[in-house]
Design a protein that fits this description.
three-stranded antiparallel sheet; PyrdxlP-dep_Trfase (chains A, B); transferase (chains A, B); EC 2.6.1.2 (chains A, B); alpha/beta; 2 domains; 19 helices; globular; homodimer; Aspartate Aminotransferase, domain 1; ALAT1/2-like (chains A, B); aminotransferase (chains A, B)
Chain lengths: 485, 485
């Protein structure tokens, strides 16, 4: 039945952590392998219908041609190489800012470790930002942790999830959802309990569906947390206050910890959409809810208008946690010393941008407005083009950095995918990559209702790249529909 | 017996992950609290016998007055703010290097994500460095993972440790040892099996002690890995080839995974000491050992001569792992997207410094030689001064960034510590901080034989700061011995 080698492998794998064994590898790794091959072929002069590959798989604005913000880069460069602080080539406020930020670093160097939760003054700046954003709702710097990215913040689950509990702990998680969350929950030995966002209603979160999901967990696991992404990734929905209030009542009744991934809070462009934080809505609802619902909210330097994904820094704010539990969270975080220092500084800049009257303000304002307008324009244009194509259908986008259209795949194509050993939408993406040089994500990576297929692509790119993405998608898809119908 | 509030707390804590609950908080947090108070008091003008606190608790060279390397900072600044690439103020090789490194970043920006394991070209540079270092032993870039720091690399234990195994998995770990390792192992639900380094023999690792530790684990846990720190932290010992060969035979016989923390590989200054990597010794021993012993080796951008702790990047090389297990390791690492990009670039620079003939070479050479000489000088001076004091005794230092002298604490002092609710050596450190404004680490943080006490302090500081550290220690300790004998 099995070769000796196969039996060897099975026994080796038997010994590793079964929770890690259960983590489903990313579909991305299949496509990334092909991407490298194609790049290599292009380098070697192999002729293809495109000169270079467009990669809009991830939410990675700089990769998509969005330019970094000058102010942010100038301050960071001056912090790294302080001789620049005295250079007349940099605006005065950049130099002052760099000097002030360096003064908060031990030894005056961004090369020193910081306190575990982050530079104390930066924690205060983060809490002040949150208070401003939430119309005065107070934020305590002691509840804030700077971390190497918002995904990493999810390691708070390591504290909350008890691997020894029986039945296992569960986490209610949206479908579709940013894929690494599911992986993290599985890796920690907990069960992902899917709740489906309603595609027909523009990917709305419906509280009845949360109740259904809780029911579905009976006999399987004991849900202890609800994970929410707002604005949505990959779906682009922005929750209404009313929906958030329902969610808060739900987690309170069911005694669930609320994990709110709010990293796309700046990216809201729907005409009647507005970002409101869970912290704010919770506070507005008053006691007893505002004193009892346990909440963790995430934000990231990878997002906002600067989009500095490479710096790997985010923050987490914890609300209503028991001080005894906070101590254990602190202990767990202290094993990693601290978040990247340049990322901490970037976060400080992101939340405290130049103000009117300061020398850097006009350029900063122009650059961020451009990105804002481009994102809104790209969102509109993507929906328009996608919906003009047969077999593709995209819900209106209100926010976030992605489009997630449904794609109809004919049975003959699904058959071919099976023969290739790939999920049907991964196979679609793989052909799109091969034939049009365009890399997008398959819906199967993010979860979807059985029998439906989707693709995801980043819309936070330059307008030119967005246009080229849509052109390639259009050409490929029209030919695809001809070939398979 | 308990108040209502206490019972509430217990029940809340009951629900969290017991492995996290078992993580012992760092002694550092006790001392850091006091440090903040003192800093605040000094700011408010409270008179103390010192004007500022010297903090040599961590291995943090920039905090200790070591200057960052100009070449590294210039290249990083130019990568962040590429207008500088065209500035005539930067040496030509800096500008070329920055341009080449930026060419490897998607969208030409350090703000883009990289591949999960790191920038492909940088992985090749790392493998080339390893091959050079190890006298030609080949290194496969596919076995290298860039990570947010070497402590983070330890999350490979998350793959290796099976939380469901009975008895529990164990990890043999040295005493004394860098504290966060113990915390990580505990947090993953495994058992730390201590093996004691021999202080009397200059903190030598003795293989008989490894056998004793294995025996001690019987009925308690099933050891699956051996963790080694070479050069030693906090002990400053550098292992001999012979000792390493014994270790390799031991792990092979006992079927243990070998985790080699080799982040201090550059810091070797003992007259007859030399750093040799475990990978190299393993290769020299030939088959079957060289084909079968599973090894993970760690290095870090926080160490080396640049000491860029704030960038939070390191690498891990894996040797002899089953490809099926490698796949799962890759999947686990892919949840975190990638290591900080500026850290990846710094690592590239650290392993590929300027060469003779290049414009930046003379300054780079001078700066690194200065740090090298300072470290060796500090090590010698620290041992000399410490050993001249009654009740303090430091083994000769051969490498690493720390001194870890034994301190004799009189019974009357131990009694006072008990009354204060502190470990005796933490109490010693707390008084040293209060009275002399000097922050060092207590031995209890790193582990020590029962009934012995130690302190740890970083010797990778400027010569001036080292002298001031030793002066403060001397003054305090002389008074301390008067007061308590």
């Amino acid at each position: 039945l099995f070769s000796n080698e196969e039996i060897m492998k099975m026994s080796v794998l038997q010994e590793i952590n079964p929770n890690v064994r259960n983590m489903k590898p990313l579909e991305y790794s299949i496509l990334a392998g092909r991407l490298s091959q194609i790049k290599e072929e292009l380098r070697q002069g192999v002729k293809k219908p495109y000169q270079e590959v467009l990669d809009v798989y991830m939410g990675d604005p700089h990769k998509g041609g969005v330019k970094p913000l000058s102010f942010v880069r100038q301050v960071l460069a001056a912090c790294l190489y302080p001789q620049l602080v005295n250079s007349s080539k940099l605006p005065a406020d950049v130099r002052q800012r760099a000097q002030r930020l360096l003064g908060r670093c031990d030894g005056g160097s961004v090369g020193s470790y910081t306190a575990t939760r982050g530079i104390p003054e930066t924690l205060i700046r983060v809490s002040e930002f949150i208070t401003r954003r939430d119309g005065g709702v107070p934020s305590n710097p002691e509840n804030i942790f700077l971390s190497p990215g918002s995904q990493w913040s999810l390691s708070i689950l390591h504290v909350l999830l008890n691997p020894e509990s029986s039945p296992r702990n569960g986490v209610l998680s949206p479908v579709p959802c940013h894929n690494t969350t599911t992986m993290s929950v599985t890796g920690l030995g907990a069960v992902v309990v899917p709740y489906y966002l309603s595609e027909e209603q523009g990917w709305e979160l419906q509280v009845e569906e949360l109740h259904r999901a809780m029911e579905s967990a009976k006999g399987v696991c004991n849900p202890i947390a609800l994970y929410i992404v707002n604005p949505g990734n990959p779906d682009g929905h922005v929750q209404s206050r009313k929906s958030m209030q329902e969610v808060i009542r739900f987690v309170s009744e069911r005694k669930l910890f609320l994990l709110a991934d709010e990293v796309y809070q700046d990216y809201v462009f729907g005409e009647n959409s507005e970002f409101v934080s869970y912290k704010r809505v919770l506070s507005e609802m008053g006691p007893p809810l505002s004193d009892t619902v346990e909440l963790a909210s995430f934000h990231s330097a990878s997002k906002g208008w600067m989009g500095e994904c490479g710096l790997r820094t985010g923050y987490m704010e914890l609300v209503n946690l028991d001080p005894a539990v906070m101590k254990h969270i602190f202990t767990m975080f202290s094993t990693d010393t601290c978040a990247p220092v340049l990322g901490q500084i970037a976060l400080d800049l992101m939340l405290n941008p130049p103000q009117p009257g300061e020398p850097s303000y006009p350029l900063y304002h122009m650059e961020t407005q451009n990105i804002k307008n481009t994102l809104a324009g790209n969102g509109k244009r993507a929906v328009e083009v996608v919906n003009s194509l047969p077999g593709l259908c995209c819900q209106p986008l209100e926010g976030g950095a992605f489009a997630f259209p449904k794609v109809y795949l004919p049975p003959s194509f699904i058959q071919k995918a099976k023969e290739a050993g790939l999920e049907p939408d991964t196979f679609y993406c793989s052909r799109l990559l091969d034939e049009a040089g365009l890399l997008v994500g398959p819906g199967t990576e993010y979860g979807q209702k059985e029998g439906t297929y989707h693709i995801r692509f980043c819309i936070l790119t330059s307008a030119e790249i967005m246009e080229e993405v849509l052109t390639r998608l259009t050409c490929f898809h029209k030919q695809f529909m001809k070939d398979f119908s």
